[in-house]
Amino acid sequence: MKKTIIIDELYTKVQQKEITVISAVAKIAVFIQTDYRLFSLGKYDEDIRASVVLEFIRTGYKTFDRYDESYGTFHNYVISYVKGICQTTVKKAALKLKREKVEFSQSVDNYQEEEDKHNFILKLERDCLAPYALNNPKRISAEPPLSLLEFMHKKTHNSDAKCTIVVALKACTDLGDSEILKICHENNISEKDFYETVQELKESLDLKYERREKYILSRNAAYSNHRLYDPDIAFPSEKTASIQKLNNQRYENSTVLWKRKNHELRRGRFHYSPTNKTIAKKLGICERQVHYYLSRIKEQFPDYIEINDEEED
Questions:
Q1: Which of 3, 125, 220, 274 fits a 20 to 30 Å CA distance from 182?
Q2: What's residue 110's pLDDT?
Q3: pLDDT in tens, 241-271
């Protein structure tokens, strides 16, 4: 028996309550999977067909609720419904692929800039050493190790060591075990106290990190729409005047939104580092001192260090 006749009979059986809608949808889903050419799915790959089948299993009950005999045969209505699902699925897949390409292109363009920013602490450690234990970072001082509070309040003629501590905490997300141990050994600081301080600063950034990631995703989506509705890429001859006008408006809106959010990210919005106020509280010093230490390091190494002066509460 032809599949089209079976589909028509399924509708009749559902109306006569001989079978349930769930059973009928399941049988039609099997037909879509095995006889996909009947539903004009032959030109699509298995992933698209599988997505169409899953979507029909989820929403196929609507065909039994909405079908009207004046539309024609039930199997033609089902085939049209499946084609609609397929078009939506293909469009979503294309948009997802395009956005992934845009995000990948953005990440490639910004790779060197991000690498330079996140690795500045390595340059600092090579050039900004404490006034003692310069050539032997594993040297153990005869004095008991100091806490960060004690170290920052200790009088010294060379403030480079304190600058190192402040910048290290500012870049806490980039610190590894080896960097922490080296700083502690060179400055006779308690490793436990330093580890705990770094961990507390990292935990304080969780909410800021989530907000920044959401903002980046919205920026990327705006850029994707900017490219999607670009009149130089689109085909205006294939669209009506009203659709062209709507797409031009979408292009202008997405362009403004993308540029604004990209500018905000570049100037330091959601900057992923602890605020000067937070660092000052952990070190027991005032916020002005933290700013002084950061500015001093920036003056010494302007080509390697980027300090964001904008603070968020």
A1: 274
A2: 62
A3: 777 788 888 888 888 988 888 888 777 666 6
Phi–psi pair at 135, nearest 5 degrees: -100, 0
- Which residue, 186, 158, 183, is CA-closest to 169? 183
Q: Compute the Cα dihedral for 118, 122, 124, 129 and give only its sign.
A: positive
**Contact yes or no for 171/307 (Cβ under 8 A):** no
Residue 120 pLDDT > 60: no
Tokens standing for 276?
């000067």
* pLDDT confidence bin for 134, thresholds 50/70/90: very low
What tokens appear for 159 in the block? 């403030």
